[in-house]
Amino acid sequence: MLIAFWGAGLMGSGLLRNLLRQGRDVLIFSRDFTKARKLAALGPGGQAVQSLHDLAKAEIVISCVARPEYLKAAFLGKDGLYALMRKGSLHIECSTIDPQSALQLARACQELGLDYVQATLGKTPAMAEKAQEPIFAGGESASLDRAWPLLCAIGKPLRVGSIEASCAAKLLSNLIGMTNLCVLAEGFRLGCKLGLEPKTLLNVLMDTGARSFQMENRGTMLAENDYHDVKFRLALALKDMLLGCQMAKDSNCLTPLFNEALQKFQKAEAEGLGDLDCAAVGQR
Which residues contact 129 (CB under 8 A, 6 or more apart)? Predict the structure, then answer.
């Protein structure tokens, strides 16, 4: 079975390396061909390609890219990748995108006789590297059944129901996580103003009800006020916050805390912090 993979970022490359380590035949595309070529060299079945259209020859196409507009520009329309894929092929979409964009892609697949699964990723690049990444999988039962063995090979899939539910699970996770990060950063600023040494404060909080995933992963960054070890770029966190808050608006659901956190991320990017880790939202 020939697999095609688009995406050589921090998250996608981890998934891809799992496929290559398993000896699978994989066509690899990245906007940076050098990245694709380096990844292809990691396994005997890896082959870097220079055009997205080259991916159409695969039975299964996996995408893991930064923004929904990239996907729509590449897959939709008479010159898009869907139009070139063989009838019956499967698109497994792993990017963090909004429900409406995912539905647009899924409907286009249905019209052309293709299968579509939204398989949004739940945690970190380190988890993806170990094939332990939570995968929120949504779509038609038959399509999910077809994708399941491959999803199990690259991560820990969970059936969440619909395509919209797959997108919503990840966006909610990031909305809550990034809002928690804003609260954590604010607490550090206040603690330091009151004379607590940052690393002492971190040790105190890690043994209290304030402990969280964000504290475990970014507490040291906040304590040292250093955000250059990038696990999740602030600009991408902002993108997810924007998508999530728009999802809430479309659902007629009031989310004032999420909206306030969004404003903090917008301010941080406006201050030139977009390429730092998202913990820079609370830099002192």
Answer: 14, 17, 18
pLDDT in tens, 249-271: 999 999 999 999 999 999 999 99
Confidence of residue 284 (pLDDT cuts 50, 70, 90): confident
Report the percentage of the chain scoring pLDDT > 70: 100
CA atoms 19, 167, 89, 72: torsion sign: negative
Domain over 2-161 is classified CATH 3.40.50.150: no
Inform me whether the pLDDT recorded for 81 exceeds 80: yes
93, 63 in Cβ contact below 8 A?
yes
Do strands 134-139 and 115-121 pair parallel, antiparallel, or not at all (unpaired)? antiparallel
| CATH architecture of the domain with residue range 168-282 | Orthogonal Bundle (1.10)
Residue whose pair of structure tokens reads 């040291």 in the numeric block:
220
Q: Sign of the C-alpha dihedral, residues 156, 162, 168, 169? A: negative
Whether the predicted pLDDT of 283 surpasses 90: no
Domain with CATH 3.40.50.720 in the chain: 2-161
Degrees to nearest 5, angle at CA 262 with 261 and 265:
90
